């Protein structure tokens, strides 16, 4: 359920000092890069209230031409600086400078069963495997964030860049099946292997510790012929991206065509993409495909306006199979690359809030809306649905390792849902008999992001390059091996994995796996449960950050209408009024 190296295609690593790490991986994600924030900015974002030192301060500030109340002056300056810092940080996360050198340029071509190029896409985490299941989900998440917050990305100068990243992923997805056909019978599930449990000495992405650009071992391609979960998630990724690129009609249409073929394939050829014992099952096991049917169906409806997809997504039996009524489940409401139901329910609540399609969809849409309210209640500490660490991090994976990926997804849903409610002129929601304002959701989202950025017992930022204290030894091959002109073979790079020195290349912008349930953290390269970044986790981080960023963009934080652009009018246009009566 977890992976490795998020850097395939464009990646940037900057030289620093020294390196180390290994083992298997799990779900993480991919980030991006830019500049570090200066001390003043860091202290604004991470530090607590400033000390007053008991000194009396002047009540007014004389600016020469005008005299201002000191409190108003300080509040204004603080607000301006704060906004600048947050915008700067989001730019750092979204920025991704291409690395020097290509990597795995024979992917697909060297596999005798595929024999076509599968170059592109993103590596999963600290290794170089392309796990298409979490990769597709990551592209869906990034597209969703652009659809909702396009104006924010534009305001910070990152819209073109985030679209480039999405297109890099969707271009690759289009290569993994016959995207020119209306009907397909197979898709690529994975490129590369990571299982080392059988004692084989055959080099693979976990058996070796090499720079991505030095990889010279065989990278097998795994195809699947009945994989409803993967196909539906890939369909969701292409459908969501088609809305992002709707102004580029040719490309958008190409994405929609591919999405239709994928969703059709997933519905007809039922099965999970991760059979027992497979590489997929070891690292990114899928527990069900019903949630992908709902999630993918919703995105297909928004991309095409075809009611048949909405009928699938809102079928009562589909909701039941997807776990919509499993209120007692310990994982109910936990949005991940494996369980899309919480995200699908938020997405379909949006439809009900703004378009209210009515019969025959209303019953399930109302159910999803109510359950979204319940999920938001479960994120609040006072309901004890999930534990929180003493430092304030929600334990959506019940004290398990790598908690940050779950926290950023919850922060994104909470922040986004609060924006939906405000745009629908709804000041809050009910948890039982008690009413809570949208600001409660934003406070929860901010608390999780503040924790990740350094407001925690260790004063540790879990995003590399941000703040004064952050992980120096991420579990990542490319970051741990120096660019010293030496090519290290399969086992040659292990000396860099094992060293206790800091990585020679700073993986700026990457969020690592995170602390344990006691707020403890070990900056150890060989322990991926603490230090490995993943593609899926960092996609969630980007979405959460842009959603919570206080960037003025108009009356509403979200774009209310773009997602509905393919949907025809819900009700027939009324006929024109009769002509005036003449005696």
Automatic annotation (TrEMBL):
Domain of life: Eukaryota
Keyword Hydrolase among UniProt keywords: yes
Any one Gene Ontology BP term: cellulose catabolic process
Active-site positions on this chain: 475, 523, 532
EC number: 3.2.1.4
GO MF entry, a single one: cellulase activity
PROSITE patterns on file: GH9_2, GH9_3
Keywords: Carbohydrate metabolism, Cellulose degradation, Glycosidase, Hydrolase, Membrane, Polysaccharide degradation, Transmembrane, Transmembrane helix
Domain Glycoside hydrolase family, residue spans: 97-545
Spans traversing the lipid bilayer: 72-97
Catalytic activity: Endohydrolysis of (1->4)-beta-D-glucosidic linkages in cellulose, lichenin and cereal beta-D-glucans
Family, as annotated: Belongs to the glycosyl hydrolase 9 (cellulase E) family.
PANTHER family tied to this protein: ENDO-1,4-BETA-GLUCANASE
Protein name: Endoglucanase
Species of origin: Panicum virgatum (Blackwell switchgrass)
